[in-house]
Amino acid sequence: MHADPKGVLTGVHFIDGDHAACEGALAAGCRFVAGYPITPSTEVVERFAARIPTVGGVFIQMEDEIASSIAIQGAAWGGQKVMTVTSGPGLSLMMEHVGLAAFTETPCVFVDVQRGGPSTGLPTLPAQADMMQVKWGSHGDYEPIALAPNSPQECFDLMIKAFNLAEIYRVPVFFMMDEVVGHMTERVQIPPAEEIEVVERRWTAKRPGQYRPYEVGADLVPEMVKAGDGYRIHITGLTHDERGYPAMNAAAQDKLVRRIRDKIRRHADALVDIREDSVEGADVVVVSFGITSRIAAAAIDAARRQGVKVGHMRLVITWPFPAQRIAAVAQRVRGFVVPELNMGQMVLEVERAVAGRVPTLSVPHAGGTVHEPEVILEKILEAAR
Amino acid sequence: MSEDLYRWADGLTLGTDIDNPVMPFLRQDRIPHIWCPGCGIGTTVNCFARALTESGLDLNKVAIVSGIGCTGRVAGYMNLDSFHTTHGRAIPFATGLKLANPELKVVVYSGDGDLFAIGGNHFVHAARRNMDIMVVCVNNFTYGMTGGQVAPTTPLGPSQTTMPYGNFEPSFNLPYLADACGAVYVARWTVYHVKQLAKAMQEGLKKKGFVFIEALSPCPTLYSRRNRLGDGVDQLKYYKEKSVQKNGADTKDLALSYQGDIIVGKFVDRERPTWLESMNEHLSRVLGTQYQPYGVTHAED
Predict the structure, then answer these.
(1) Residue numbers in B near A55 (CB within 8 A)
(2) Protein fold of B25-273
(3) Rounded distance, CA B165 to CA B188, Å?
């Protein structure tokens, strides 16, 4: 279906990534946001608070990130498309509810405008150091989806995709911005509503009495209802059966945890979103994501001027990790270079996929600014030797 | 209430099939419940079912949200849209649920540790905002599910597994807290006072805004036995003997002490605009016709 025109600010704008992300959420149909102020993410909710009264919906500033991250889940079961927005310290507080969303299969979007950490770290300066936290941060096994925009335009475009994926797979989706993308101002084109595809919730057609909240078909994703429609659902964070009732035994645990893993893993091909540049025929491939992809592009240009055949794989979806594609490319290149604004997180996934076939060179950076292109160039040249 | 329950109990004995009037409110495929003999949580559920009957509310539009713990299991037994959330976070979940679908009557049903230790911050803010939800706190002075640890409601004196030499921490006066934070309806009863508790819940279901009902309940397995207070019936006798009804009492005078007097009654019943009413009123005034009024605050409006 098409976007509701009420939420779509069609036109050309000169706005930063935080504002563009908010517009993306409104265009995607988000009508409930709960949040708590935290730099450098706050502009997203500030804009939502200003915009939502004339669109029709609710913004509430909660008492903390713990409350925000579960208020959105109540609102999802009340029938709305929902989002919360935060940065590192707030994300850490939200972790228990990431698990709740994964286990109760509650569609929701968590925006993380990453800043330097750990702890209070560098509130106003960039990092990409929460990449492993969003994959592993909550206890237990689950498979989230994460996207990494590298421009204000992508903050708009990919936010719509983030909401759509949350509805299709009924998982928490992480929108992994960083301080630079969040505060960088660029041209953002917002298309007319009829050109924006939004995915409706997987509402069941079954009647009360026939419907079981966690019964699934071939795609392993259950259909949903909302509170107040007469289905008298029970939803719990305990291990549960198809009725949604607690079922605390090893067999029920195995069945449920396997399914919430497999519903993502079996769709891993559909969830690959890599923007590739000259990967075929390359000797060296740079794997990057988010803001670092723009610095990497400058380093790649410089390497090409020196005659090195360099390809670029920019991960737009970072989780699930596109291991198969990386493994296939590893058959034909001499090495990978992985720059990221952390001390080496996603490089571990690249190494896992490459499995020792060729060298994988990490270009770590503790955050606070972006890489110097020369540092990445040096590693490209090293990999090409 | 008790009359038809007795008829039902007689029916069980005599082999006749008089239905328990509470059964339609329960998920019968989830019975038996997990609560210990002598525990008062089931009694509060009975009162809640009766309040739902008397309220005349469309049960398809009533949702119940619990946190974690013994009382946290209430949601799972009620034949309503029900949510068993995380420890301490039932109130913010309920806040989102209510705001997303304002036609719902949303009830939070949880224990004292869940609502006032780990969840205390959410309680004070939901009351301050006058979020339109009813909060029922079953207060058994202890953490039951985890084995009898000290709670923010444990009176001075009794032994708990994490206060093995007796509790030396002062406890909350819950009605005083709720009153100070802005709750529009505040009552306290015990599970001895089944009719009064059911009536308070019925009033609470009809009330618009943040409603707080404290229900004192025995925990015979952990609190009473550890402190040689007898069984559930002995605690009911204590409630009967030491309870003094003082409707409209000043909430600052309602602190509880170990096996001391219990002031019960309805202490607060006032009007204040709910969060949604305030939002709609304020934004309509400021933004005029640009504003899209959001939802309604009650199904009957």
Answers:
(1) 292
(2) Rossmann fold (3.40.50)
(3) 29
What torsion, rounded to 10 degrees, do the Cα atoms A250, B33, B200, B142 define?
-70
A78 contacts on B by Cβ (under 8 Å): 96-101, 104
Q: What CATH architecture applies to the domain A274-384? A: 3-Layer(aba) Sandwich (3.40)
Beta bridge partners of B186: B212, B268
Provide, as residue numbers in chain A, all residues whose Cβ is less than 8 Å from the Cβ of B75.
Answer: 234
Edge-to-edge strands of the sheet including A360-363? A274-277, A310-315, A284-288, A335-339, A360-363
Nearest CA-CA distance, residue A22 and chain B, Å: 19
Residues B279, A63: C-beta atoms closer than 8 Å? no
Q: What are phi and psi of B162, to 5 degrees?
A: -100, 10
A contacts of B28 (beta carbons < 8 Å): none
Residues of chain B in Cβ contact (below 8 Å) with chain A: 27, 29-30, 60-61, 63, 65, 75-76, 79-86, 89, 91-101, 103-104, 121-122, 125, 275, 279, 283, 287, 290-292, 294
Locus of tokens 């286990």 = A103
Task: Tell which CATH architecture fits domain A5-195.
Answer: 3-Layer(aba) Sandwich (3.40)
Domain ranges of chain A: 5-195, 274-384
What is the rounded CA–CA span in Å between residue A367 and residue A365?
Answer: 5
Contacts of residue A55, defined as CB under 8 A and 6 or more positions apart, other chains included, come to A6, A7, A26, A31, B292
pTM for the full model? 0.96
- Per-residue pLDDT of B108-156, as tens digits, reads 999 999 999 999 999 999 999 999 999 999 999 999 999 999 999 999 9
Would you list the DSSP string of B42-107?
Answer: HHHHHHHHHHHHHHT--GGGEEEEE-SSTGGGHHHHBSSEEEE--TT-HHHHHHHHHHHSTTSEEE
Instruction: Kindly indicate whether the ipTM for this predicted assembly is greater than 0.95, answering yes or no.
Output: yes
